[in-house]
Every structure is written in C-alpha cells, then in structure tokens.
Amino acid sequence: MLSMIGLVGGLALLIFLTMRGMNLLVVGPLSALFVAVLSGMPLFPQLAGEGEANLVGNYMSGFSGFVTSWYLMFLLGAIFGKVMEDSGAADSVAELIVGKLGMKYAVLAIVASCAVLTYGGVSLFVVAFSVYPMALSLFKQANLPRRFIPAALAFGSVTFTMTSAGSPEIQNWIPIEHLGTSPYAGWEVSLIVAVFMMIFGYWWLKRIITKAVSKGESFISRETDPVAEKKELPHPVMGVLPLAVVLVIAFIFHDSLAQSALIIALLGGVIATYLLNRKYFRNFWNAVSEGTLGALIAIGNTAAVVGFGGVAKAVPAFQTAVDFMTDIPGSPLIGGAIAVSVIAGMTGSASGGQVIALPLIAPHYMDMGVNPEALHRVAAISSGALDSLPHNGYVVTTVRSICGETHQDAYGAVGIVTVIVPLLGLALAILLFSLGLGI
C-alpha cells in the first residue's frame, strides 16, 4: 500500500513540479527519490544487496540507457531541423504551402506546413519555431484569435504525422527494438487513422475558432510580436528534396538496419540540405552548434523522465499496476494501449512512455500471440495521446515560450486536438486491428 502511495505520489509530484516550471533534470531524480523512500528502496548501490534495486543505480541505468540508444537520433534530428531552418529551406516549404492555400484556409495552411515538415523528419520544436512567424502573420491578416495558434501548430506536428507509419520521428521507431517490426508496421490501419485524425481534428479546430470569432474574439497585436524578416529563400523544391532524402533512405535501410537506419537517413538529410542550399546559409556551423545544444537539452529532459521510470518500475506497486492494465478484458491491444498511454501521460513524454512500458508489456503480449505490427502501431498512436497533457515539454514550450500564451487561454484547444482526437484515433485503430485489417 505504501509503495502504491509512493508511486502515485511520485508521478503527481513529477507533473506538479514540471507544471510549476522546474527543470526536468532536477524534477526527475527528486520525484524518483520520493518513490524510492516510500517504497523502502535502498538509495545507494552500497546499501543494496547484489543485483538488488536501488535509487541511484536504477535511475542512472534508465537515464544512460536511453541516451545510449537514442543520442545519435536526437543529435542528427536536431541538427537537420536547424540547418533546414538556418538555410531557409523550412520557411520555403512552409511559404509554398501557405501561398497555395491562401488566407481563406489560413488554419489549414499552418497545419499542413507543420505536417509536411514533421513527416519529413524535422524536429517538432524546430517546426514550431519555423512556422510560428507565418502563423502569426496569417492569423493577423485573417483576424483570428491568436490563442489558437498553439493548437494549429501542435495539431500539425504531434498527432497524425508523429506516430504514423513511415514517420522518421522516434515515437514511430522505438517499438522496433522491442517488437522486431519496421517503421511501416500496420500501415493500412495507420493510413486510415491518420486521415481520420486529420479530417476530424481539423474540422473540430475550425469549429472552435469559428465559435470564438462569432463571440467577438479577434486578433490582438502585441509590441513583442516578431517582425517578419525578409530574406532570400531557396526554391521550394530545394526545401522538399532533403525531406524526401530522409524518407527514402529510411525506407531503403529499415529492413537491414532497423532503428539505426534513422541515423543514416537524418545524416543524409543534413548533407542534402547543405549541398542544395549552401549559398542561403547564414551560418552553417552555428546551426550545427545550436542543433547540438538543442539535442542535449531534449534528450536530457527525456532521459530524466526515463530515469524516473527506471526507479518506478522497480517498486512492487508498478508491477501491480501493469498487471492490472494487461489483464483488462477484451482485446489485448486495449491493455497495451492503456499501459503506454497512461505512462506517457504521467511522464509527459511519448518516447519516455514507450521506453518504460514496452520492455514490460511487449514480451507479455508477444507470448500471447498478439500481432507485433498491430501492437507497434497501437503503442505508437497511444503514446501520442495523453503525453500532451499540460506538463508536456512540447506543450509548455509551444504555448508559453514560442507563442507567448497562457495555458488558461490556449490549452483548451491544444488538449482537444492533441489528446482527445488521438484517443479517438487510437480507439479506431484498435477496432480495425480487431476486425483483422492490416494483420
């Protein structure tokens, strides 16, 4: 009982302190300490028996294990995003889409820009930074309430693209290690779910914005709004080609190299961006340095949460909770989806939720004969639902730092399109797999 109080209390503390703005690198071990103390776990290896769980050993094992497995992907993904941004290639792609769709479809233009860049392998955070100035300009010209910009950015980035088959984002690649699948696992169901989320989510977002406008809301300028920087951009084709390079290389090598194919694909994207857009760079090596720093922060924050999970999963209460979720009646995919989604929600990280949950549930479901491709796709989609609760790092950064909004004003719409819509997509995916589609 005390162990369960420690587990739930530690997760609550993690969420609370994160929402208060504390650094995850501090919050992670602090919350893990709470779990360990209430569960009676030894704090140091010297106080534990041989092979026995302890706070420092389990925390650092989870932390370092995640860095070891995913550092190069984080590094090259962040650098690719930054060189796309610095060369203007990302802006060129976004402006092409905005120009084609026009002001009448301002919201759709923003969503589509984010979707193309995200599915092409550009880091979620870089996409938000790149598209925000154009989103601000479009919302201003269309006189739409600016508090919905975070929802438009998030919807195009972390929903129907991030967890779809073929996506170079790591949320689609983590299950490969545990299930022996490919990034295209369950692609038939993935395609249907992605289209559903895209259409239904866009309809709902437009409905919310239209309702706000009908109540008299409009765009309000601020003195701190960025001034659009006029600079020469590469041809849109030169922006699209590096994205295509990432997808093509990932497709060619995914069978032979599994998740390591992502390293070659993202490196190919960086090289292609440089060769095609050399004359447009403001400072290539500065972009590489900024990308490196961003990668260290991103992987450090995620690893801090995974380290917490390394401690949490070693206490008796965690196994009790996992047994409860995996014994839920009905399709085994339901239990797997709940396990991944709940852990991702509690940690505020889609990748962190998968890394903690999959080693525990994958062997259980594989022994039961569950189709690995179906489990891969369900795990990916479910990781991208409850992870977007208010304490999620991407949500906090996009709402507060990039868009300058408050959670009170902006999160309602963000929650609808990044939590409720993916949950509906998850339910559809489980239904389709249960009917035998894609298996």
What does this 3D model show about the protein?
The chain has 439 residues and is mainly alpha-helical. The chain has one domain (54-438). 73% of the residues lie in helices and 0% in strands. The chain is built from 18 helices and no strands. Helix 16 (372-383) runs antiparallel to helix 18 (407-434). The two termini are 41 Å apart.
Task: Offer a concise description of the structure.
It comes from Bacillus infantis. GO terms for molecular function: gluconate transmembrane transporter activity. The chain is mainly alpha-helical and 439 residues long.
Topology at a glance:
Elements: H1 2-19, H2 24-39, H3 55-87, H4 89-101, H5 106-119, H6 124-142, H7 149-158, H8 174-179, H9 187-214, H10 236-257, H11 261-277, H12 284-312, H13 316-326, H14 332-347, H15 350-367, H16 372-383, H17 393-402, H18 407-434
Task: Give structural attributes.
439 residues; mainly alpha; 18 helices; 73% helix; globular
- Largest β-sheet summary: none
Proportion of residues in extended strands:
under 5%
Helical fraction equals over 70%
Q: Count the helices. How many?
A: 18
Radius of gyration using CA atoms only: 21 Å
Structural class: mainly alpha
Order of helices and strands: HHHHHHHHHHHHHHHHHH
The first-to-last residue Cα distance is: 41 Å
Q: Unreliable runs, pLDDT <50, ≥5 residues?
A: none
Number of strands: 0
Broad shape: globular
Q: Mean of the pLDDT scores? A: 88
Number of domains: 1
